[in-house]
């Protein structure tokens, strides 16, 4: 009987921990959603500085499909964002998922809906962002991307 009660108490505690994790993810959705809103707004203005200081971290690493070199310096992140802004008329981001990895870390899968400045057709890119919370708040520390939607 004691073993049975211990199992019941353990199951109840496990349920409370799971509820707490879900509640934490709601907070993550809000703060990461705010960072992504900053990204979309700054992208529309062509503001690479805001994107690279308010969304990506200074120590971010970017790599993905078709990219020959890993970007892993603040100057490289800025140069990459400036290049993308030069070729893009508009982006819209759809969040597929946001998951906590700990109290100060999270990941998100995002689909970029990209409208190029040229006459090319719009296209989609999926990104896996790894976020951490530091003194400047939540920032992307790693960005891995490939063509297509989630």
What are the low-pLDDT stretches, counting only 5+ consecutive residues below 50? 3-23
Give me the side-by-side strand order of the main sheet.
1-5-4-3-2
Number of helices: 3
CATH architecture: Roll
- Structural class call reads alpha+beta
Rg: 19 Å
| CATH fold descriptor | Nuclear Transport Factor 2, Chain: A
Give the integer mean of the pLDDT values: 86
Query: In total, how many domains does the architecture comprise?
Result: 1
Q: What kind of sheet is the major sheet?
A: 5 strands, mixed
- Overall 3D form: globular
**Beginning-to-end CA distance, first to last residue:** 49 Å
How many β-strand stretches?
Answer: 5
Any idea of the CATH class? Alpha Beta
Main attributes?
alpha+beta; globular; disordered N terminus; single chain; Nuclear Transport Factor 2, Chain: A; 3 helices; 5 strands; 150 residues; five-stranded mixed beta sheet
């Amino acid at each position: 009987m004691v073993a049975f009660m211990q199992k019941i108490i353990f199951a109840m505690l496990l349920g409370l921990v799971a509820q707490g994790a879900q509640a934490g993810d709601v907070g993550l959705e809000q703060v990461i959603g705010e960072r992504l809103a900053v990204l979309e707004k700054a992208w529309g203005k062509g503001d690479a500085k805001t994107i690279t200081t308010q969304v990506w971290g200074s120590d971010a690493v970017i790599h993905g499909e078709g990219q020959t070199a890993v970007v892993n310096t603040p100057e490289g992140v800025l140069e990459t964002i400036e290049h993308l802004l030069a070729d893009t008329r508009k982006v819209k981001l759809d969040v597929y998922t946001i998951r906590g990895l700990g109290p100060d870390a999270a990941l998100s899968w995002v689909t970029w809906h990209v409208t190029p400045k040229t006459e090319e057709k719009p296209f989609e890119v999926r990104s896996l962002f790894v976020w951490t919370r530091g003194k400047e708040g939540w920032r992307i520390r790693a960005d891995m991307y490939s063509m297509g939607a989630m």
